[in-house]
Task: inverse folding
C-alpha cells in the first residue's frame, strides 16, 4: 500500500504561517477555490483539478512561493495579525457572499471627533439635542478623555443658560447676566426672520426663512435690517420704547482693536470689541463660528461685546478689552461677569501646525486647550520628512496631522488670568458646528448667515 504523502500546498502554507510570511500565505491560501467536501459545479471542479493537479501544482506553488517569501522577509510584518486564522482541520472554507452586506458611500466627510455609528447618525440628522456632552457620552472612554466629574460639571454649566422664545424668535441668555435688571443681553439663533437662505446640501440643516443678522451677498439688505429690528425688539422689555435703544455694530477684521462708544457712531467702526457705559446703546458683534464674549461691570454699570476668533484669541483681545474698561470706567476685574457664548467647540475645530506653534509661543498653558499631537506640531517637526518614500501619487497622500482647538476654554483662561473670578465666567457648551440646526456655522456651510451677540444698559434704570 502506498503511503499518503502530504500535499505540497499544505506544507508550504504551514511553513509560511510559521515564518510569518504574510503575502505568501495569503497567495497560497487562494489556490483552493473550495474544500474537497464543498459542493461545486462539475465543470469548475474538473478545471480546477486538471490545472492545479499533481506536478503542475507543485511547480506553480514553488515558483510563486519564492518571490512572495522574499518580499515578506524585507517587509518584516507579522502575518499572524494580518491573515485569517487557520481552522483546526487545516482547510480554508469559501466565503458565503450572501451574508455580506454592502453599503453605499455617500462621500460625506465627518469631523475627526465623529467616529462611532451613533455619532454619524446624529451628525447626518442634525438632532436638536446633539451637544458636546452627547458626543462625549457616545465616545469610548479612551477617546473622550473626560471623567464623569467633568461631564457632570458640563451639565451644570448648561443649566446656566436659558433658551427662551420671544416674538417668534429663539434667544439664548446667560443666567449670570439675567440677574441684573438694568442690563439687556442675548445671543441670537438662526430660527425665525424673513431672510430666505438658499438651498443647502446634505450637510446643511437649515434652509428657507432664517434670522440672518449680517449683511451677506445672498441676502437683501432690507431683510437684514428688519431682522435686526425684530431681534432688538424681542430683547428689550415692553416698557422701554424702541426708539430709545440704538444698535451699535462694527466692521470686524479679526484684530485686537477696542472702541469706546458713548454716542451712536456716524460711520461704521473698524474693530472687534466695543465698550460703553451709556444707557440706550446696544453693543453687537457678529459671529458664525467665532466665540462671542459679553462683559459687564456690575459696580460702574459698563458693558462690552467682544468678537474672538483664533487671531483675536491669540492677541488676547478679551484681556485688552478688560484693560480698556479699566482705563475708561475704572473697572475692577473682580466686579466683572463674563458670558462666553456659543461658538465652534473643540470637537469640530481643527487647526494646522502654524496655529499650534503661534499659541505655543505665546501661552504657557496652550497645551491644555488643544487635543492631538500638540508637542510634535509645536516643536516644528516634519511629520513626514521623506515623503517620496511613501510612493503615494499626487492627491492620495495622507492628510497632515492637525489639532483641535478649544477657543472657549482659551478665552475663559485669558479672562481669569486678567483678574476675573472663575465663578463669574460662564461658558456655553453649545457648538455651532454640531448644532447647525440652531446656529449659523461658516465651517459647516460657507454660504450661511450671521448671528448677533448683544449687550446694553437700559435707560432710566441707573
Result:
Amino acid at each position: 500500500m502506498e503511503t499518503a504523502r502530504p500535499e505540497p500546498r499544505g506544507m508550504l502554507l504551514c511553513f509560511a504561517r510559521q515564518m510569518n510570511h504574510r503575502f505568501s500565505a495569503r497567495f497560497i491560501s487562494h489556490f483552493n477555490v473550495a474544500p474537497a467536501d464543498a459542493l461545486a459545479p462539475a465543470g469548475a471542479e474538473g478545471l480546477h483539478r486538471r490545472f492545479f493537479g499533481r506536478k503542475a501544482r507543485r511547480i506553480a506553488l514553488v515558483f510563486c512561493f519564492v518571490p512572495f517569501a522574499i518580499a515578506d522577509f524585507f517587509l518584516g510584518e507579522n502575518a499572524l495579525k494580518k491573515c485569517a486564522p487557520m481552522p483546526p482541520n487545516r482547510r480554508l472554507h469559501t466565503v458565503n457572499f450572501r451574508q455580506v452586506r454592502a453599503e453605499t458611500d455617500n462621500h460625506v466627510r465627518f469631523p475627526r471627533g465623529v467616529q462611532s455609528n451613533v455619532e454619524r447618525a446624529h451628525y447626518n440628522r442634525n438632532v436638536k439635542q446633539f451637544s458636546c456632552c452627547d458626543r462625549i457620552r457616545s465616545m469610548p472612554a479612551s477617546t473622550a478623555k473626560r471623567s464623569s466629574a467633568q461631564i457632570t460639571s458640563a451639565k451644570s454649566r448648561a443649566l446656566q443658560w436659558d433658551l427662551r422664545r420671544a416674538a417668534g424668535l429663539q434667544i439664548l441668555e446667560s443666567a449670570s447676566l439675567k440677574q441684573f435688571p438694568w442690563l439687556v443681553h442675548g445671543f441670537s439663533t438662526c430660527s425665525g426672520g424673513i431672510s430666505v437662505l438658499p438651498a443647502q446640501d446634505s450637510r446643511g440643516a437649515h434652509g428657507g426663512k432664517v434670522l440672518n443678522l449680517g449683511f451677506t451677498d445672498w441676502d437683501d439688505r432690507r431683510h437684514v435690517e428688519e431682522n435686526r429690528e425684530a431681534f432688538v425688539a424681542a430683547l428689550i422689555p415692553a416698557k422701554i420704547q424702541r426708539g430709545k435703544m440704538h444698535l451699535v455694530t462694527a466692521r470686524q477684521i479679526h484684530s485686537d482693536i477696542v472702541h469706546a462708544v458713548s454716542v451712536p457712531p456716524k460711520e461704521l467702526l473698524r474693530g472687534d470689541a466695543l465698550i460703553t457705559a451709556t444707557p440706550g446703546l446696544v453693543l453687537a458683534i457678529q459671529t458664525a463660528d467665532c466665540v462671542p464674549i459679553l462683559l459687564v461691570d456690575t459696580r460702574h454699570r459698563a458693558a462690552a461685546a467682544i468678537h474672538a476668533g483664533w487671531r483675536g484669541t491669540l492677541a488676547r483681545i478679551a484681556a485688552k478689552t478688560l484693560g480698556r474698561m479699566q482705563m475708561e470706567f475704572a473697572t475692577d476685574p473682580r466686579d466683572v461677569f463674563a458670558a462666553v457664548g456659543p461658538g465652534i467647540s473643540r470637537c469640530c475645530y481643527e487647526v494646522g501646525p502654524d496655529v499650534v506653534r503661534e499659541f505655543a509661543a505665546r501661552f504657557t498653558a496652550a497645551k491644555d486647550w488643544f487635543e492631538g499631537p500638540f508637542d510634535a506640531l509645536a516643536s516644528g517637526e516634519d511629520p513626514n520628512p521623506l515623503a517620496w518614500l511613501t510612493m503615494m501619487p499626487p492627491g492620495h497622500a495622507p492628510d497632515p496631522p492637525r489639532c483641535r482647538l478649544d477657543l472657549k476654554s482659551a478665552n475663559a483662561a485669558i479672562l481669569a488670568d486678567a483678574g476675573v473670578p472663575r465663578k463669574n465666567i460662564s461658558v456655553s457648551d453649545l457648538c455651532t458646528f454640531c448644532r447647525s440646526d440652531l446656529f449659523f456655522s461658516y465651517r459647516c456651510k460657507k454660504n450661511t448667515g450671521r448671528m448677533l451677540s448683544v449687550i446694553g444698559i437700559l435707560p432710566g434704570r441707573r
